[in-house]
Amino acid sequence: MADLETFDAGGQTIHIRKNLRVPMRDGIELAADAYQGVEDKPRPALVALSPYGKELQALALTMPPQRRPSPMWDGCIEAGDIARVVAENYVHVIGDLRGSGHSEGEHIGNYNAGGVSLGRDAYDFIEWVAEQRWCDGNVGMIGISYFGSMQVLAAAERPPHLKAIFVSGGHYDFYETTYHGGVMWFMPRAAREGRGGDSGWAFTDNVKSRMLETFSPDEIEKLVAERLRDPDVAAWPNLVHVLNYPKHHEAWFDIVMNHLDGEWYEERNPITLAPNIDIPVYLQIDQGRGWTMDGTIELFHALQGPKKLDIGPYPPMQSRPFIEEHDTMFRWYDYWIKGIDNGIMDEPAVNVFVEGTREHATGDQWPPKEVEYRSLYLRTRRKLSFEHEPLGTEYAAPDGFYQAPLTVTDKVEILSWSTAPFEEPTEMIGQGAAHLFAEIDQPDTNFILRLWDSAPNGKRQLITTGYLKASHRELDARSTEGNPYHPHTRAVPVEPGAIEEYVLRLYPFAATFLPGHRLVAELSNNEPLADDHNALLPPDAFHLPVGRPVTHKIYRDATHRSRLVLPFTTRRAN
């Protein structure tokens, strides 16, 4: 029997059922806590599931919300505002996934692959909650990031009592979450290891590596040796450590070993599963987290039932404990679970905050306005222009930079190009592309492009980013003008000295450049470890640096028309 506790939340009394045991169909029991009002009556339930530990989520009752870059911000207190959920007359049920926290069972691999399907566990969990005397049989879900992804995995299993979901900041295509344009991102390492100032997965001793479970020791030895031949990996101490001692951090070992897209990532990709979802889905994401915006929009297009998409303002990181979006979330659940006609379904399906004007663009699809792709060409003297460079290579010599490995320098070299000040408000909404004609003197490098809105007073804000590992330059058949896709299924070394066209995908954004402002494009092969944008991200939220010295030449002449392809809007929103 669960322990019953009472908590006073500023005059609101909350009853807490601690350490509930939730049986799965294979006999494993998951652990959960349930928070509700004192009146003993059935209520609809909002379920939160993750491997981050239900005890950690309880800090939402006692810790004031922290925003980045506060050192008290904690990345994994993401299950929502418990007191607010109870005040809105829902039961807040927070559970530990198998192999984590106080739950039984093994956890193998990530939430997209390995072990028992986490969607199947979510189905069993939701149906158990619906049968409890304190639940009225109606269930929704709550939580951001991993909690958000779990909502999609659960909905794809179609549990009968799950009426709707509200997903904020979820991660979907797990390859694109961990390798941006083929460039490894360190944030998954941080979330899974734990670190100073941030929680990690609350794994028990029963977490296992999918790779170690799949391959023999001899095969693992050969695969690890091959991975260590990548100079980027070999130059980074953390990666050398995890590859030599995989049982120290099994989940991160699996990610490092799977540097190409394929079956390991696709086995339970939430976007692939999305066509199975026919219940109402509300998707929310803030600008500045490009890879999750891309996945959120792709998921929105794949959903079959009633759906909404809301893209909020910069900056990208919500507070911890997570409290944002609750007003909209309760309107959504009050309509779909409680049957309150509050007009939310009369509103446009897509709502996008536009940086610059700080207005909203609405419509029935993404992008919410019609767009025309136009090119801004890289020119001599570090200019961006709607007209391409008329001079040939012999007169318009390439721009270039040499980047030493970060093992020997802390300076990141950056090339930049800028438009003239805009004379009238200029709006762009959608995704874009950067076509760079480049020559490098090594078989590989990273291309990292960041676009900024630079104001006359010198302040600037990040608008969007693009990443591409040079050896991942191949495009696939889905690619169209301004909307490139890379399969990332193989790495093809670059011939040193050859001029190649590299097409970077620019993550979705919505911004208006006001009169007097400039669009600035910055190119590097590593990113600054600290700047105005990175200060808003969690510690370690940067990308694996290039481990070899590389000279880059960027050609932008009459023959090699390096350019940005951007989505300029052509009509007003609804």
Key phrases:
574 residues; alpha+beta; Jelly Rolls; 7-stranded antiparallel beta sheet; 6-stranded mixed beta sheet; 15 helices; globular; CocE/Ser_esterase; AB_hydrolase_fold
Notes on the structure:
There is one protein chain. Helices cover 20% and strands 30% of the residues. It is built from 15 helices and 26 strands. Strands 16, 17, 18, 20, 23, 25 and 26 form a seven-stranded antiparallel β-sheet that branches. A six-stranded mixed β-sheet has the order 1-2-3-5-4-7. Strand 9 and strand 10 (183-184) form a beta hairpin. The termini are far apart. The mean pLDDT is 92.
**Which superfamily, in CATH terms, is the homologous superfamily of the largest domain?**
Alpha/Beta hydrolase fold, catalytic domain
What is the CATH topology of the largest domain?
Answer: Rossmann fold
> Can you count the helices?
15
Tell me the radius of gyration: 24 Å
| Number of structurally distinct domains | 2
Q: Name the helicity range.
A: 10-25%
CATH class of the largest domain: Alpha Beta
CATH architecture of the largest domain: 3-Layer(aba) Sandwich
Number of strands: 26
Largest sheet: 7 strands, antiparallel
The rounded distance between the terminal residues' Cα atoms is 54 Å
What characteristic shape results from the CA principal axes? globular
Strand content: 25-35%
Low-confidence stretches: none
Q: What structural category arises from helix and sheet content?
A: alpha+beta
> Kindly state the mean pLDDT as a whole number?
92
